[in-house]
Amino acid sequence: DGGITQSPKYLFRKEGQNVTLSCEQNLNHDAMYWYRQDPGQGLRLIYYSQIVNDFQKGDIAEGYSVSREKKESFPLTVTSAQKNPTAFYLCASSISTGSYEQYFGPGTRLTVT
Amino acid sequence: DAKTTQPPSMDCAEGRAANLPCNHSTISGNEYVYWYRQIHSQGPQYIIHGLKNNETNEMASLIITEDRKSSTLILPHATLRDTAVYYCIVRARGGVIQGAQKLVFGQGTRLTINP
């Protein structure tokens, strides 16, 4: 089955530690995205990538970093510089960044204490 | 981008059709209507989109009024698993990419399917 996987589903870290969230897709999509969702809120775009080896900052990129070395993979690192890292992180992909038909993974709930 | 207005909550009996309205009176000619839903603690799920013709897929039907100022998402035989928050968004599609086509959700409609 084609889809997007994110791991782990729940992640706990101590303040000051960097943590990397995994996102893999086998939909052969060029575009991938990372969003953050806080309780009762909508989605906020962190980073996006249109093609391999290219990525752009979204609205809230500070304290985050990404890489896109393979078409299938778009990992997100939450660094210690991110002031409020506890959130629900969602990865998505689409055929291109011109498409609003984005397909989401199940999400990773990160808790930093 | 056109703004959308949806009722904050709705209830529907299991097995009945759920009709979710969305007003988008400032929609422009090149903007599509998209519907997503988000089940609690899961990622959003794309449902359907349309421009001016009614659309149907395996999940739902989308009815867009002739003046395109409103639309209705129809889940024909709602099940308990359809309980979710449903989001209607309006966006232009394709064209020159100015930036990521990021999804911006409003408050949506919290649909509860009752047994």
Structure explained in plain terms:
The complex is a heterodimer of chains A (113) and B (115). Chain A is globular and about 35 Å long. Chain A contains no helices and eleven strands. In chain A, strand 5 (43-49) and strand 6 form a beta hairpin. Chain A has strands at residues 4-7, 10-13, 19-25, 31-37, 43-49, 56-57, 64-66, 76-78, 87-94, 103-104, 108-112. A five-stranded mixed β-sheet of chain B has the order 1-9-8-3-4, with no helix packed on it. Chain B has a four-stranded antiparallel β-sheet with strand order 2-7-6-5, with no helix packed on it. Chain B is globular, with a radius of gyration of 14 Å. Chain B starts with 8 loop residues before the first strand and ends with a strand.
Question: What is the N-to-C succession of helices and strands of chain B?
Answer: EEEEEEEEE
- On the 0 to 100 scale, the average pLDDT of chain A is 91
Number of separate strands of chain B? 9
| Rg for CA atoms of chain B | 14 Å
Provide the β-strand percentage band of chain B.
over 45%
Largest interface: A-B, 29 and 23 residues
In the sheet with the most strands of chain B, the strands line up as 1-9-8-3-4
Portion of residues within helices of chain B? under 10%
State the total count of DSSP E strands of chain A: 11
Number of helical runs of chain B? Answer: 0
Rg from alpha-carbon coordinates of chain A = 13 Å
What is the number of helical segments of chain A per DSSP (H or I, 4+ residues)? 0
Q: Structural class of the helices, strands and pairings of chain B? A: mainly beta
Describe the global form of chain A: globular
Quote the average pLDDT of chain B. 88
C-alpha termini separation of chain B: 38 Å
Oligomer: heterodimer
Approximately how much beta-strand content do the residues of chain A carry? Answer: over 45%
Structural class, judged by helices and strands of chain A?
A: mainly beta
Q: Stretches of chain B where pLDDT falls below 50 for ≥5 residues?
A: 95-100
